[in-house]
What we know:
It holds the Pfam family SUKH-3. The protein has helices at 13-22, 31-43, 56-65, 95-105, 145-154; strands spanning 69-70, 84-86, 109-115, 120-125, 130-134, 137-142, 159-160.
Amino acid sequence: MHDRQHSSTRFPVAVDAALREAGWQPGRWDIRQAEEWADALRSHASPAGHQHAVFPAAVEAWAEFGGLRITASAPGRQIAPAAVRIDPLSGLHLARTLGDLGRALETEVSPLGAEGEEQAVLAIDTEGRVYSIDHTGDWFLGQDIDEALATLVTGAQPARLTSS
């Protein structure tokens, strides 16, 4: 098995193309920006005192993909592909919402970015799983950021999270 980080087949072709068009390349790593975001999230509290969780899986995703605006060039498979912006501060004022989702999933959740023109917020948990939260509910996008980006860029139908 090749090292996933340096394999040319890490992403499906359409996803790889969309990422490269957005400015991503293998080995991209802006830890300084990721740490600034981590500090901003850690220092923010909602009026009711809710705070953001910050953990390695989130910081790693921010370092590799932070600041990118990713748009698909092809129509979606099942739904229209979402334009994606990786910027955890788009979820800055959602500490309570993300905290509630984390409790429901029995993990911690941190903001990752936004879909479209802020129609949905993207979030990542401590295991690196990615979710989308919009006015219709909570959605599971993938076991890791790679899978989530593929779901979003190719317009695959995400799975709705249901309360147990």
